[in-house]
Amino acid sequence: MSKVSTISPSPVAKAFKHIQWDPLSSLRLSPQETALLRMAETNPIEYTLGDARDATMYVRVLLKLLAEASINVSGHVARITEECTENRALDALDADPLGVVTHYAIAKLNEILSTLTSPWAAENGVSVANVFYAGSECLLIEQWKALLRIISKGKGDSYAQRSAALSLATVLLAACPSQRIRPGRGAKETTSSVRIPSYASAIEPLEALTAWIITQLKSSNAATVGTTVPAMMTLMGATEGRQIFAASGGIKYLSRQLRQRESKSSPSPTASGSDRKANSPVQQLYELAFCLWCLTYELNNFADVRADFSKDGLPVMALVELVSSAPREKVVRVALAALRNLATCSADVNPEPDAPRIDSKVFLGEMIACGLMKAIGLLQDRQFTDPDIVDDVESLHKLLQENFKDMTRWEVYQNEVETGQLQWGSTHTGAFFKENAKMMEGKDGDFKLVKILISLLSSKDEDIAAIACHDLGEFCRYYPNGRGIAKRLGAKDIAMSLIEHDNPELQRHALQCVSKMMVQNWEYVK
Predict the structure, then answer these.
(1) Which site in 1, 192, 288, 491 is 20 to 30 Å from 234, CA atoms measured?
(2) Cβ contact 510:498 at 8 Å
């Protein structure tokens, strides 16, 4: 298991050493628990963790602090976003002692988990399983719910939420079968003495944590999304975490976030200094793209994951946009790696039951429709320091060229419409529609592409809306009763509303589209 992700310090960290436990009667600490907290403050963390009994008790006391302190927090500390001077931190301790205690307990838990996932822990035979899983069946300790309470009811405390989520993710990751550690060279433990945490006891908490992450990903606020990123990146380290995330609809929301973040060039002006660093556009783009890349490693294992990646063409679209905009080399690297996994995935091992086959050919078609070939051509002319980028660019170029040769003009057009990435070209001409108008019926006769074109009339991208107007007009010209079908599906009213648009090009295409719906012999009018 890799070392736990790092978190910026609490803004009130300078007050931690001034906490007086005796006056805080609402925490209901026993004399033994208070003594353990004081002992842990005076000794290195390795000393406390070196004794299994002390380590387990110390963690339970910290989780008790969270459970008791979070009930009556005033919210004063939660509103502090900038790092405090010692005097200001002491003022916060006076105003909201339980808020400071909450930050203290979370900071200590993160320190413990960082130590338990370090080489020192492996060499000394201690692990997350020894401390956070108990009993003969090695079940997750019940006190984990204190972390979930902080995550779910953090009252806008970004430090508490981000850090508690990371702590919980790290604890749960240790139970995943794919992460079980075999004793390495120099480790004290033997195979027979290794404690194997119960994955069954971690499934419900994993699902609860993932549900919270998904809820946060639905937000358009970068700071809100930022609270999830360390925990999400941690969960992506295990196949079990990736599976639960994908099954919860995470691929869709992650892709939406990538598109939103890519379109914004600056963080919220109200974000704190630490939040601005954590939520800077490029860094957050990289972290979200990294998570999506990790999920592509489940493509060959699960039909549902392939289906989610192909749904609405959104994930491919988000990744192609990242490559096209090329904000930083590290972002391009993970986006290209994800696209390469999509371009080489197979449905042979776990085929979809009674469903259309979704494999690399489907994703390559989406990539072509989204304009990846042009973006790859531009990347070939750039100089990159990372050899992996060069290798991915060349591999994708070859795969795209081979797939493009096998695609008919209709398949190219169909992929373009289904992904919503319309671009002027040879498939948006009268000659093309004269030849292919009957294909617009679709396999099921539901005129799916016509319906998509009608929806694209409302696109915020004015070029896409203009092309949709053009294509619908051509459909009306060349398909028998195309005018009646387009009007019945609602195209006329939407196109009419665009006739007075500020963009003269869109205005012109909207007028022509409506005219083609109204006039039977358009060529004579033209």
Answers:
(1) 192
(2) yes
CB-CB contact of 476 with 520 (8 Å): no
- Write out pLDDT tens, residues 338-385: 999 999 998 877 776 666 788 888 898 888 888 888 899 999 888 888
Q: How far apart are CA 306 and CA 294, in angstroms?
A: 13
b/e per residue, 209-229, with b = 16+ CB within 10 A? bbebbbebbeeeebbbbbbbb
> Helices 329-344 and 360-369: crossing angle, nearest 10°?
130
- Is 409:356 a contact under the CB 8 Å cutoff? no
Contact 249, 307 (CB under 8 A): no
Q: pLDDT tens digit string along 99-137?
A: 999 999 999 999 999 999 999 988 888 899 999 999 889
Half-sphere exposure of 315 (CA within 13 A, CB side): 33
Q: Let me know: does 61 contact 29? Beta carbons within 8 Å.
A: yes
Residues 237, 2: contact at Cβ < 8 Å? yes
Residue among 65, 63, 203 nearest 145 (CA): 63
> What six digits make up the tokens of 200?
């069954």
Contact criterion met (CB below 8 Å) for 4 and 117? yes
Each domain of the chain, given as residue ranges in start order, spans 299-407, 425-525
| Domain 425-525 sits in CATH 3.30.2290.10 | no
- Beta-strand runs (E) in 55-176: 133-134, 139-140
